[in-house]
Amino acid sequence: MKDSIITKTEVKKLNAELFMPFTISSGSHKSLANAAVKIQTAGGVCGYGEAPVATHITGETVEQTEANLKAVCRDMEGLDAADYLKILHFIEDRLDNNRAAMTCLELAVLDLVCRMQKISLWQYYGAAEREVRTDITVVIGSEDKARGFMKKTVSRFKDFKIKVGVDFDEDIKRLKVVREAAPGARLIVDANCAYSPEDAEKFFNELMRQGIKPDIVEQPVKKNDFEGLKYLTEKLPLIICADESAYSLNDVFELIRRKCVKGINIKLTKLGFLRAREVWALARSSGIKLMMGEMMESELSSFAAAEMAGGLGGFDFIDLDTPFFLKDSPCPAGNLLSDTGIYHIADVREGTGIIPGIF
Ligand SMILES: [Mg+2]
Predict the structure, then answer these.
(1) How far apart are CA 298 and CA 354, in angstroms?
(2) Gap from CA of 28 to ligand 1 centroid (Å)
(3) Who surrounds ion ligand 1 at CB < 5 A?
(4) In the chain, N or C: fewer CB atoms in 10 Å?
(5) How far does the centroid of ligand 1 lie from the alpha carbon of residue 312, in Å?
Protein backbone atom coordinates (compact mmCIF):
# COMPACT_ATOMS: atom_id res chain seq x y z
CA MET A 1 0.00 0.00 0.00
CA LYS A 2 1.20 3.54 -0.79
CA ASP A 3 2.36 5.50 2.27
CA SER A 4 0.00 8.39 1.39
CA ILE A 5 -3.23 6.34 1.60
CA ILE A 6 -5.50 7.47 4.47
CA THR A 7 -6.03 4.36 6.60
CA LYS A 8 -7.36 5.59 9.96
CA THR A 9 -9.69 8.35 11.11
CA GLU A 10 -10.95 9.35 14.54
CA VAL A 11 -13.54 11.90 15.72
CA LYS A 12 -13.60 13.26 19.29
CA LYS A 13 -15.16 16.09 21.26
CA LEU A 14 -12.94 19.11 21.87
CA ASN A 15 -14.07 20.88 25.03
CA ALA A 16 -12.75 23.61 27.30
CA GLU A 17 -14.07 25.98 29.93
CA LEU A 18 -13.89 29.75 29.38
CA PHE A 19 -12.67 32.43 31.78
CA MET A 20 -15.88 34.36 31.07
CA PRO A 21 -18.89 33.91 28.75
CA PHE A 22 -18.20 35.16 25.22
CA THR A 23 -21.37 37.20 24.69
CA ILE A 24 -22.40 38.91 21.45
CA SER A 25 -25.72 40.43 20.37
CA SER A 26 -27.04 37.12 18.97
CA GLY A 27 -26.14 34.91 21.94
CA SER A 28 -23.36 33.53 24.10
CA HIS A 29 -20.64 30.87 24.24
CA LYS A 30 -20.33 29.61 27.82
CA SER A 31 -17.70 27.02 26.89
CA LEU A 32 -15.75 25.72 23.93
CA ALA A 33 -17.78 22.76 22.69
CA ASN A 34 -16.27 21.70 19.38
CA ALA A 35 -15.28 18.46 17.68
CA ALA A 36 -11.89 17.41 16.35
CA VAL A 37 -10.62 14.80 13.93
CA LYS A 38 -7.38 12.93 13.44
CA ILE A 39 -6.59 11.29 10.12
CA GLN A 40 -3.63 9.01 9.57
CA THR A 41 -1.85 7.61 6.52
CA ALA A 42 -0.41 4.14 5.95
CA GLY A 43 3.00 5.77 6.40
CA GLY A 44 2.02 6.89 9.92
CA VAL A 45 1.72 10.65 9.32
CA CYS A 46 -1.25 12.33 11.07
CA GLY A 47 -3.30 15.44 10.34
CA TYR A 48 -5.66 17.24 12.74
CA GLY A 49 -8.73 19.41 12.25
CA GLU A 50 -11.21 21.27 14.46
CA ALA A 51 -14.92 21.87 13.87
CA PRO A 52 -15.89 25.17 15.51
CA VAL A 53 -19.59 24.91 16.33
CA ALA A 54 -21.44 28.21 16.92
CA THR A 55 -25.09 27.22 17.19
CA HIS A 56 -26.34 30.77 17.93
CA ILE A 57 -24.65 32.07 14.78
CA THR A 58 -24.90 29.28 12.20
CA GLY A 59 -27.57 26.92 13.59
CA GLU A 60 -25.12 23.99 13.43
CA THR A 61 -25.03 21.63 16.43
CA VAL A 62 -22.22 19.54 17.93
CA GLU A 63 -24.24 16.30 17.57
CA GLN A 64 -24.99 16.84 13.90
CA THR A 65 -21.40 17.95 13.24
CA GLU A 66 -19.94 14.86 14.94
CA ALA A 67 -22.29 12.55 13.02
CA ASN A 68 -21.38 14.20 9.71
CA LEU A 69 -17.66 14.05 10.52
CA LYS A 70 -17.88 10.34 11.30
CA ALA A 71 -19.77 9.58 8.07
CA VAL A 72 -17.40 11.52 5.80
CA CYS A 73 -14.28 10.28 7.68
CA ARG A 74 -15.35 6.69 6.97
CA ASP A 75 -15.57 7.50 3.27
CA MET A 76 -12.13 9.15 3.30
CA GLU A 77 -10.44 5.94 4.42
CA GLY A 78 -8.73 4.44 1.38
CA LEU A 79 -8.29 7.79 -0.41
CA ASP A 80 -4.81 8.90 -1.45
CA ALA A 81 -3.69 12.10 0.32
CA ALA A 82 -1.35 12.77 -2.60
CA ASP A 83 -4.55 13.73 -4.49
CA TYR A 84 -5.45 16.19 -1.74
CA LEU A 85 -7.17 18.79 -3.92
CA LYS A 86 -9.56 16.11 -5.11
CA ILE A 87 -10.24 15.20 -1.46
CA LEU A 88 -10.88 18.86 -0.57
CA HIS A 89 -13.49 19.05 -3.33
CA PHE A 90 -15.03 15.78 -2.16
CA ILE A 91 -15.31 17.23 1.38
CA GLU A 92 -16.84 20.46 0.09
CA ASP A 93 -19.46 18.55 -1.93
CA ARG A 94 -20.43 16.38 1.02
CA LEU A 95 -20.51 19.02 3.76
CA ASP A 96 -21.63 22.28 2.21
CA ASN A 97 -24.60 22.32 4.65
CA ASN A 98 -22.34 21.85 7.72
CA ARG A 99 -19.47 24.29 7.31
CA ALA A 100 -17.95 23.54 10.74
CA ALA A 101 -17.48 19.91 9.69
CA MET A 102 -16.34 20.93 6.21
CA THR A 103 -13.61 23.25 7.43
CA CYS A 104 -12.53 20.69 10.04
CA LEU A 105 -11.87 17.98 7.45
CA GLU A 106 -10.29 20.41 5.02
CA LEU A 107 -7.90 21.44 7.79
CA ALA A 108 -7.12 17.83 8.72
CA VAL A 109 -6.22 17.08 5.08
CA LEU A 110 -4.11 20.23 4.63
CA ASP A 111 -2.36 19.64 7.97
CA LEU A 112 -1.65 16.06 6.89
CA VAL A 113 -0.29 17.10 3.49
CA CYS A 114 1.97 19.75 5.06
CA ARG A 115 3.25 17.25 7.64
CA MET A 116 3.93 14.71 4.86
CA GLN A 117 6.07 17.35 3.12
CA LYS A 118 7.55 18.63 6.41
CA ILE A 119 6.40 22.21 5.83
CA SER A 120 4.12 24.46 7.87
CA LEU A 121 0.70 25.63 6.75
CA TRP A 122 2.23 29.13 6.78
CA GLN A 123 4.80 28.01 4.20
CA TYR A 124 2.08 26.25 2.18
CA TYR A 125 0.23 29.57 1.91
CA GLY A 126 3.30 31.54 0.83
CA ALA A 127 5.08 32.68 4.01
CA ALA A 128 4.35 36.37 3.31
CA GLU A 129 4.49 37.76 6.88
CA ARG A 130 6.47 36.28 9.75
CA GLU A 131 3.90 36.96 12.46
CA VAL A 132 0.35 38.20 12.91
CA ARG A 133 -1.12 39.93 15.94
CA THR A 134 -4.69 39.46 17.06
CA ASP A 135 -7.05 41.98 18.58
CA ILE A 136 -8.92 41.15 21.81
CA THR A 137 -12.69 41.23 22.24
CA VAL A 138 -14.61 43.28 24.77
CA VAL A 139 -17.79 41.22 24.99
CA ILE A 140 -21.30 42.46 25.78
CA GLY A 141 -21.63 43.13 29.50
CA SER A 142 -21.59 45.90 32.08
CA GLU A 143 -19.46 49.03 31.92
CA ASP A 144 -17.66 47.87 35.10
CA LYS A 145 -16.80 44.50 33.62
CA ALA A 146 -15.42 46.24 30.52
CA ARG A 147 -13.33 48.53 32.74
CA GLY A 148 -11.89 45.53 34.60
CA PHE A 149 -11.22 43.71 31.35
CA MET A 150 -9.38 46.71 29.90
CA LYS A 151 -7.18 46.92 33.01
CA LYS A 152 -6.04 43.35 32.42
CA THR A 153 -5.52 43.61 28.67
CA VAL A 154 -4.62 47.18 27.73
CA SER A 155 -0.86 46.73 28.07
CA ARG A 156 -0.90 43.52 26.05
CA PHE A 157 -3.08 44.25 23.00
CA LYS A 158 -3.14 46.98 20.35
CA ASP A 159 -6.51 46.40 18.69
CA PHE A 160 -9.82 46.04 20.53
CA LYS A 161 -13.04 44.58 19.16
CA ILE A 162 -16.14 45.84 20.94
CA LYS A 163 -19.32 43.83 20.60
CA VAL A 164 -22.44 46.00 20.43
CA GLY A 165 -26.12 45.77 19.51
CA VAL A 166 -28.04 45.03 22.71
CA ASP A 167 -28.43 48.46 24.36
CA PHE A 168 -27.72 51.75 22.57
CA ASP A 169 -26.58 53.74 25.65
CA GLU A 170 -24.74 50.90 27.40
CA ASP A 171 -22.84 50.16 24.19
CA ILE A 172 -21.70 53.77 23.86
CA LYS A 173 -20.64 53.84 27.53
CA ARG A 174 -18.60 50.66 27.03
CA LEU A 175 -16.97 52.10 23.90
CA LYS A 176 -16.00 55.19 25.88
CA VAL A 177 -14.42 53.00 28.58
CA VAL A 178 -12.33 51.26 25.92
CA ARG A 179 -11.34 54.49 24.19
CA GLU A 180 -10.31 56.11 27.48
CA ALA A 181 -8.28 53.07 28.56
CA ALA A 182 -6.60 52.68 25.16
CA PRO A 183 -6.46 56.08 23.42
CA GLY A 184 -4.15 54.91 20.61
CA ALA A 185 -5.76 51.54 19.91
CA ARG A 186 -7.59 50.61 16.75
CA LEU A 187 -11.27 49.98 17.46
CA ILE A 188 -13.31 47.34 15.65
CA VAL A 189 -17.03 47.57 16.39
CA ASP A 190 -19.10 44.45 15.72
CA ALA A 191 -22.91 44.46 15.94
CA ASN A 192 -23.45 40.87 14.72
CA CYS A 193 -26.56 41.77 12.65
CA ALA A 194 -28.30 43.68 15.48
CA TYR A 195 -29.50 46.91 13.84
CA SER A 196 -31.83 48.18 11.16
CA PRO A 197 -29.93 50.40 8.71
CA GLU A 198 -31.55 53.51 10.27
CA ASP A 199 -30.67 52.50 13.84
CA ALA A 200 -27.10 51.73 12.77
CA GLU A 201 -26.84 55.15 11.16
CA LYS A 202 -28.11 56.77 14.38
CA PHE A 203 -25.78 54.73 16.60
CA PHE A 204 -22.60 55.44 14.66
CA ASN A 205 -23.41 59.10 14.14
CA GLU A 206 -23.93 59.47 17.90
CA LEU A 207 -20.70 57.59 18.59
CA MET A 208 -18.76 59.88 16.24
CA ARG A 209 -20.47 62.94 17.77
CA GLN A 210 -18.98 61.79 21.08
CA GLY A 211 -15.52 61.68 19.51
CA ILE A 212 -15.15 57.96 18.81
CA LYS A 213 -14.59 56.87 15.23
CA PRO A 214 -14.23 53.10 14.79
CA ASP A 215 -11.50 51.89 12.43
CA ILE A 216 -13.92 49.35 11.01
CA VAL A 217 -17.58 48.41 11.60
CA GLU A 218 -18.62 44.79 11.26
CA GLN A 219 -22.03 43.53 10.24
CA PRO A 220 -24.30 46.33 11.51
CA VAL A 221 -27.41 44.87 9.80
CA LYS A 222 -29.04 41.51 9.07
CA LYS A 223 -27.20 38.82 7.14
CA ASN A 224 -29.31 39.13 3.99
CA ASP A 225 -29.61 42.93 4.05
CA PHE A 226 -27.04 43.75 1.36
CA GLU A 227 -28.94 46.97 0.55
CA GLY A 228 -28.66 48.00 4.24
CA LEU A 229 -24.90 47.53 4.08
CA LYS A 230 -24.76 49.59 0.90
CA TYR A 231 -26.90 52.34 2.48
CA LEU A 232 -24.49 52.60 5.44
CA THR A 233 -21.41 52.49 3.20
CA GLU A 234 -22.84 55.46 1.31
CA LYS A 235 -24.06 57.38 4.38
CA LEU A 236 -21.23 56.94 6.90
CA PRO A 237 -17.54 57.90 6.69
CA LEU A 238 -16.66 54.43 8.03
CA ILE A 239 -15.38 51.14 6.67
CA ILE A 240 -18.45 48.91 6.72
CA CYS A 241 -17.37 45.26 6.78
CA ALA A 242 -19.44 42.15 6.01
CA ASP A 243 -19.09 39.13 8.28
CA GLU A 244 -22.31 37.11 8.56
CA SER A 245 -23.30 38.41 5.08
CA ALA A 246 -20.08 37.02 3.58
CA TYR A 247 -20.99 33.34 3.89
CA SER A 248 -19.93 32.19 0.42
CA LEU A 249 -17.75 33.21 -2.50
CA ASN A 250 -20.92 34.20 -4.33
CA ASP A 251 -22.01 36.48 -1.43
CA VAL A 252 -18.63 38.21 -1.49
CA PHE A 253 -18.76 38.62 -5.26
CA GLU A 254 -22.19 40.27 -4.98
CA LEU A 255 -21.18 42.48 -2.03
CA ILE A 256 -18.19 43.80 -3.95
CA ARG A 257 -19.97 44.11 -7.33
CA ARG A 258 -22.80 46.13 -5.76
CA LYS A 259 -20.33 48.23 -3.71
CA CYS A 260 -22.08 47.30 -0.44
CA VAL A 261 -18.99 47.14 1.76
CA LYS A 262 -15.39 48.24 2.04
CA GLY A 263 -14.28 45.28 4.17
CA ILE A 264 -14.76 41.51 4.38
CA ASN A 265 -14.26 39.29 7.41
CA ILE A 266 -12.98 35.93 6.17
CA LYS A 267 -13.69 33.03 8.49
CA LEU A 268 -12.61 29.56 7.55
CA THR A 269 -15.66 28.16 9.32
CA LYS A 270 -17.93 30.03 6.94
CA LEU A 271 -16.02 29.66 3.70
CA GLY A 272 -13.69 26.68 4.05
CA PHE A 273 -10.06 26.79 2.96
CA LEU A 274 -10.64 26.59 -0.81
CA ARG A 275 -13.16 29.44 -1.03
CA ALA A 276 -11.43 31.58 1.63
CA ARG A 277 -8.41 31.78 -0.61
CA GLU A 278 -10.57 32.82 -3.56
CA VAL A 279 -12.27 35.48 -1.42
CA TRP A 280 -8.84 36.75 -0.40
CA ALA A 281 -7.79 37.09 -4.06
CA LEU A 282 -11.07 38.78 -5.02
CA ALA A 283 -10.93 41.25 -2.13
CA ARG A 284 -7.25 42.05 -2.68
CA SER A 285 -7.81 42.77 -6.37
CA SER A 286 -10.83 44.99 -5.51
CA GLY A 287 -9.19 47.19 -2.87
CA ILE A 288 -11.35 45.74 -0.10
CA LYS A 289 -10.01 45.62 3.49
CA LEU A 290 -9.60 42.13 4.88
CA MET A 291 -10.07 40.71 8.33
CA MET A 292 -9.29 37.15 9.37
CA GLY A 293 -11.79 36.09 12.01
CA GLU A 294 -13.00 32.95 13.73
CA MET A 295 -15.82 31.44 15.80
CA MET A 296 -15.07 30.04 19.29
CA GLU A 297 -11.91 28.14 18.40
CA SER A 298 -8.95 26.55 20.13
CA GLU A 299 -5.33 27.13 19.17
CA LEU A 300 -5.63 24.40 16.52
CA SER A 301 -7.94 26.19 14.11
CA SER A 302 -6.81 29.64 15.30
CA PHE A 303 -3.30 28.77 14.12
CA ALA A 304 -4.67 27.51 10.81
CA ALA A 305 -6.35 30.89 10.28
CA ALA A 306 -3.27 32.83 11.45
CA GLU A 307 -1.03 30.85 9.12
CA MET A 308 -3.33 31.34 6.16
CA ALA A 309 -3.56 35.08 6.88
CA GLY A 310 0.18 35.54 7.43
CA GLY A 311 1.06 33.13 4.64
CA LEU A 312 -1.05 34.93 2.03
CA GLY A 313 -0.43 38.40 3.49
CA GLY A 314 -2.39 41.62 3.10
CA PHE A 315 -4.84 41.22 5.99
CA ASP A 316 -5.63 44.55 7.68
CA PHE A 317 -7.25 43.13 10.82
CA ILE A 318 -6.61 39.87 12.68
CA ASP A 319 -9.37 38.73 15.02
CA LEU A 320 -8.16 35.38 16.36
CA ASP A 321 -8.44 35.93 20.09
CA THR A 322 -10.61 33.08 21.34
CA PRO A 323 -7.61 31.03 22.64
CA PHE A 324 -7.20 33.84 25.20
CA PHE A 325 -10.66 33.01 26.61
CA LEU A 326 -9.86 29.31 27.22
CA LYS A 327 -9.00 27.81 30.61
CA ASP A 328 -6.77 24.73 30.30
CA SER A 329 -6.82 24.51 26.53
CA PRO A 330 -6.69 20.99 25.09
CA CYS A 331 -4.46 22.39 22.31
CA PRO A 332 -1.75 24.47 24.00
CA ALA A 333 0.50 26.45 21.64
CA GLY A 334 3.42 27.07 24.03
CA ASN A 335 5.84 29.69 22.76
CA LEU A 336 4.18 29.88 19.36
CA LEU A 337 1.52 32.23 20.80
CA SER A 338 2.62 35.08 23.05
CA ASP A 339 0.38 36.61 25.71
CA THR A 340 0.46 39.87 23.75
CA GLY A 341 -1.54 38.21 20.99
CA ILE A 342 1.30 37.51 18.57
CA TYR A 343 1.12 34.30 16.53
CA HIS A 344 4.74 33.31 15.79
CA ILE A 345 3.80 31.53 12.60
CA ALA A 346 7.30 31.56 11.10
CA ASP A 347 8.40 29.29 13.97
CA VAL A 348 5.89 26.54 13.14
CA ARG A 349 7.75 23.51 11.86
CA GLU A 350 5.08 21.20 10.43
CA GLY A 351 1.39 21.59 9.61
CA THR A 352 -0.42 23.99 11.93
CA GLY A 353 2.16 23.29 14.65
CA ILE A 354 -0.64 22.29 17.04
CA ILE A 355 -1.49 18.72 18.09
CA PRO A 356 -4.62 18.34 20.27
CA GLY A 357 -3.85 16.55 23.52
CA ILE A 358 -7.10 14.55 23.31
CA PHE A 359 -5.83 11.98 20.77
MG1 LIG B 1 -18.10 39.48 13.39
Answers:
(1) 10
(2) 13
(3) 190, 218, 243
(4) N
(5) 21
